[in-house]
Design brief:
Blueprint lengths: L16 H19 L7 H15 L6 H15 L6 H12 L8
């Protein structure tokens, strides 16, 4: 279950629960994308952006602007692939745990 943005490390725990949620969401979507047999034009972009997200999630304090940028790349690349919609939604929610998107 996703946690609120204000929830931080649990006493005695070393990892911020938001980071744990992000790692899970990235891994889940990577697995879903790998299992999706149909080829689509921007698959390489999605795979690269997910690899970037995995690298960012490996850090204890991920770079939030880079998280958002990578999320946008993934969304743009796989947004029309309905089979991956739920995984994309979960990834967006995990990134949103780090705070609201800045107003433009």
């Amino acid at each position: 279950m996703l946690r609120g943005v204000d929830q931080r490390c649990v006493p005695g725990s070393q990892v911020d629960p938001r980071v744990t949620e992000l790692r899970s969401a990235v891994a889940r979507l990577r697995r879903q994308l790998a299992a999706h047999r149909a080829d689509f034009r921007d698959r390489g972009i999605a795979e690269e952006a997910l690899a970037t997200l995995a690298g960012l999630a490996a850090a204890d304090r991920p770079d939030i602007p880079m998280l958002r940028r990578s999320l946008l790349l993934v969304a743009g690349a796989i947004g029309s692939v309905s089979a991956l919609g739920e995984g994309l939604r979960q990834l967006r929610e995990a990134v949103d745990l780090f705070g609201p998107s800045p107003k433009v």
